[in-house]
Structures are given as C-alpha cells and as structure tokens.
Amino acid sequence: MQLRYNFRLYPTPGQRESLARAFGCARVVFNDGLRARQIAREQGLPYLSDGDLSKRVITEAKKTTERSWLSEVSAVVLQQALADLNTAFRNFFASITGKRKGPKVAPPRFRSRKANRQAIRFTKNARFSITTGGKLRLPKIGDVDIRWSRSLPADPSSVTVIKDAAGRYFASFVVETADAPLPEAASEVGIDLGLTHFAVTSDGRKVDNPRFLRRAERRLRKAQQDLSRKANGSNNRKKAVVKVAKAHAKVADARRDWAHKLSTQIIRENQAVYVENLAVSGLGRTRLAKSVHDAGWSQFVTMLEYKAARHGRHFAKIDRWFPSSKLCSACGALAESMPLNVRSWECPCGAVHDRDVNAAKNILAAGRAERLNACGGTVRPAA
Ligand SMILES: [Zn+2]
C-alpha cells in the first residue's frame, strides 16, 4: 500500500527563491494547459490529448520568448503540473458521465498566484535523491535541509514539496510499504464519534480532545479575533494573517499527531474496528458543520482505515441511518426519541445506558452482524 511520509524542510533563502520560481512555473503550465483546452472547446475543436497539450504548453512554449524561463526549472515539475490538470479533467468527465461515484466533481479551475498552499511534485524521473549527508537533493533547487522525524521504510517513488499558508516548507514522500500484520487480538470494538466526546468505545472508554489541543484551539480563536479587528490592507493585518496561519498549522499538527497515537493504539488492541459512517459531507451542511470539521473525525477514521488494512485488521463503517443511540443494546428495543441532551436513559427491559457507550455497542453489534453475513453466516442485527 502507498503511504505518505511528511517532513519539515528548511530551504536557504536562495533555495526559497528557486522554489518560488518552480511553484510559479508549475502554476503557469497548469493554467496555460487549462486555457488551451478551454479555447479548443470554444472553437469547436477536438479535446487536446495529454501528449499534444504537453508539446504545446511545455516543449513548444519553452522556445518562445514569453515562456523561455520555463527551462529554468525541472521539466518533471512541469510535466507533473500538467498531469494534475489531466487527472482533474478525467475526474470531472467521469463525474458528469456518472462513471465516478460520490459528490459531483467541479471542472478544473485556474490556479491563483495568491493561493495559500503551493506545491510541486518530483517523480523518480526527476532524479531527486537523499544525499549521504541526509539532505534532500532536488534538481535545479539544490540540497535542502530536512528534519527526519522518522525513517523512510523504503525508497520513495515521488516527493511533493509544499509551502503552506504559514510559510513553512514540507516534503511529502510517497512510499510503497509492505503489509505488516500484527499478532491476532481477541477484542473487537465499536466507536461512536460524538459531540460531547471525541470518541466513545463500546468497552466504555471516553476519549476527549486533549488539553494541549484545546489550548492550541483557544490560541487560534484569539488570533482570528485579533485579525478581525485589523484594518484592511494594513501592515498589521498582514502580520495578523501570518499569525492566524501559524496558529492554524499548530492546531492541525497537534491534532494529527494525537489522532495518529489514538488510531495506532485502537488498531493494535482490536482485531476488528467499526465506526459509524458519518458521511461528514452530509453533516457538514447542517449547523453542526463547524464542530464536525474541527473535530477532525474524518482524518481519524481515514487513519483507522489504512492502518487496519496495513496491519491485517478488519475495519468497517456502519451506515448512518442505523439508529445507534435509540436502540437498546441489551434487548434491541427502539426508544421513541433521543434528544441530544439526554446523556443516559433506562430501557423498559431494565438496562440503564450511557447514551454514547450504548451507541458504540450497537455499532459493534451491527459491524459484527454485517461481517458474519458477508462470511455467509445467518446472524442479522436485532431489529
Ligand atoms: Zn432494553
């Protein structure tokens, strides 16, 4: 399976200049390609093939005076920018013809010079390498300092260099990793992702966002308030924007590290993991949007999913129409309504439930039943 490994980069001022040039060239090639296809369509000409497009906006363009500077950056970076454009077009076509499932994909849009996040990709063809001194050697950029927070398990097939809104640089390596099955575990777990806790498990564990994360979030909110008080176009506003971006990056980093630890622990301890299918994009349109996105559940669930695949664990999402909080996990009776403020309840059968733990137990039961069904078993979830 392919995994990404991200590390912080520390380019020198000269390397930053070269990177800025490469970001710019990649953007220009992407936009030139998009424009060429749009014009062809307006003129009723056939769709420009990937090969023709590459010839036109890279090979031929380099020979013109207006685009001769494209030669100053690695050709692979330009080809990869065009590859991104081609993928965007393919996804868009697959989406409008119904070949691609899920939410509709918008047609590719022009990349802005003012975009917060800039990225370029080097593939193996670009001959990027890691020097014996432990630096990242990038063609036409140089040997860039990198902080290796962990080691790469194999040779990377590509590296994406990213500059984020906070002005930080990252290298994101794609590495093909072998499966690493863990010894069989006895327990299985259902996880309820709720609003009062980050997660509640069927064995009764309640996981809250850690205090350091809440602190970082408070600092972010304060930076955002400070920003809103600064006059438009002022120097102080520019400084405040960078401050917000930095606070944002801190929150994102802290949350990711924490989600990594939690997901690794859950996968290590359990043979099967079931979570409610949140369909976060659906919930995202409601008033819960902010908390849903802030809570970082989808990131956490994604981690569970790929770690399960990698370590030989079973993972499944349980459909969200499943009434996990209204169903008594002891007798299977359905409570009539369950307002959000009800934290615990008693079923007529006598069972007293913590709302979230009961939901997690139901998710576990539904997950087990689905798995048995898939294995040819006859067990169905209690109605
Ligand atoms: Zn009951």
Major β-sheet profile: 7 strands, antiparallel
Our count of helices gives 9
Terminal Cα span:
38 Å
Shape descriptor: globular
* Class of secondary structure makeup: alpha+beta
What radius of gyration results from the CA coordinates? 25 Å
Please state roughly what percent of the residues sit in beta strands, choosing from under 5%, 5-15%, 15-25%, 25-35%, 35-45% or over 45%: 15-25%
**What do we call the CATH topology of the largest domain?**
Nucleotidyltransferase, domain 5
Low-confidence stretches: 280-285, 379-383
Overall mean pLDDT: 88
The sequence of SSEs as H and E is EHHHEEEEEEEEEHHEHHHEEEH
Give the tally of structural domains.
2
Q: Widest sheet: strand order?
A: 2-6-7-1-5-4-3
Can you count the beta strands?
14
Bound molecules: zinc ion
Helix content: 40-55%
CATH class of the largest domain: Alpha Beta
Describe the protein's architecture and organization.
With 383 residues, the protein is of the alpha+beta class. The protein folds into 2 domains: 2-176, no CATH class; 188-374, Nucleotidyltransferase, domain 5. The chain has 9 helices and 14 strands. It has helices at residues 13-42, 50-62, 75-96, 211-228, 235-269, 280-283, 289-295, 297-310, 355-374; strands at residues 2-10, 118-123, 129-130, 136-138, 142-147, 156-163, 169-176, 187-192, 199-201, 206-207, 270-276, 314-318, 344-346, 352-354. The strands form 3 sheets. A 7-stranded antiparallel β-sheet has the order 2-6-7-1-5-4-3. It has a 5-stranded mixed β-sheet with strand order 10-9-8-11-12. A two-stranded antiparallel ribbon has the order 13-14. Helix 1 (13-42) packs across helix 2, helix 1 (13-42) packs across helix 3 (75-96) and helix 2 runs antiparallel to helix 3 (75-96). The longest helix has 35 residues, at 235-269. It is globular, with a radius of gyration of 25 Å. Residues 280-285 and 379-383 have low confidence and may be disordered. Bound molecules: zinc ion. Zinc ion binds next to loops.
